[in-house]
């Protein structure tokens, strides 16, 4: 039986929260007294903030991490758990803008972020279902397949990634659908349980000696002769150094940074359990999946292969997960008609931060260290650049990255609210509908 629009798409045990929280819920806030003074104050307890804290705490700096919500409440536990090389602009695009040397450095940092994430998880012994499964990047039309094939065939020396093409005739070996025109395999890309990864990072930061206080919003930052006086909802703390690690949740606390990131909601659902035979038919391998649309879909099996986790952008403006969930399900069913009657068990959203040049940025703004703007590829890059900014606070030469050298752009009349989001999405959807 097919669902009508009036029939419920949600399972009886539906939860309006991330599927990942079933295993690793955000920690219960502890009653921890705010210290009067610290060496390093980090605002934001996601991947960026925790990796920075691990560096500074292990570097013998008295480190405090605060978050307006529970640690990990934001997109660090709300993402799809896909780990890639992170860089959105192509090498040729970057070469035209910055020159060959800079383009090579930027893409090399993308490769470094992927390597760092896997190495860190293995070396620190984090239990977070990390697995190098490879990505199937699906072509949504024939023209995009040809563009992918050209890119895979013309890999830049030093940036070889082992990618290879899967034609449409062989597509079912990777993905049980006729909705695509083949695609490319990127064998080094990986999957992770994002909330379990965050939980592991939290433990390592605490082991290193960092103090982490949830539900402690930073309200105002003032420079003084001893560094910074930061007013929070739990009192005032004096800090020698401050790191802003707020990414998609960057707000009026740091208005200059707010003007440089574009918060965009990314929406995700998890299905109710899918039978093994059907899962093996639809996703015969444990690949993470993305496609060539400008308004992209991304999806994967859950770590135990019991469900499908499916994400994307389905509305012109920000929406309630109860409204976005059925729309995502419709998109999922167009790719896999066999799932039309499979209900939604979880629906949620989180804010990612895009930038005007679609590159991530690291730097110091009026004395405040920051790393942000991961453009939807933050699972690997947020931790990597969090580590880098932590090293920069320690004064370590190895903390420097090419992203320190790129101007962090804004636009006239932009104050942090993306009024241009709806027309941009309409334009990109139009582009996606064409065979170009």
Question: Could you please describe the fold and organization of this structure?
Answer:
Strand 2, helix 1 (about 45-60) and strand 3 form a beta-alpha-beta unit. About 30% of the residues lie in helices and about 25% in strands. The radius of gyration is 21 Å and the shape is globular. The strands form three sheets. Strands 1-17-13-16-15-14-5-7-6 form a nine-stranded mixed sheet, with helices on both faces. Strands 2, 3, 9, 10, 11, 12, 18 and 19 form an eight-stranded mixed sheet that branches. The chain has a two-stranded antiparallel ribbon with strand order 4-8. Helix 1 (about 45-60) packs parallel to helix 5, helix 1 (about 45-60) runs parallel beside helix 9 (about 380-395) and helix 3 (about 100-125) crosses helix 9. The longest helix is centred in the N-terminal third of the chain and has 25 residues, at about 100-125. By secondary structure, it is α/β, with parallel strands linked by helices. It has helices at about 45-60, 90-100, 100-125, 140-155, 195-205, 255-260, 275-280, 320-335, 380-395, 420-435, and strands at about 10-15, 35-45, 65, 80-85, 135-140, 165, 185, 190, 210-215, 220-225, 225-230, 235-245, 260-270, 290, 295-300, 310, 345-355, 360-365, 370.
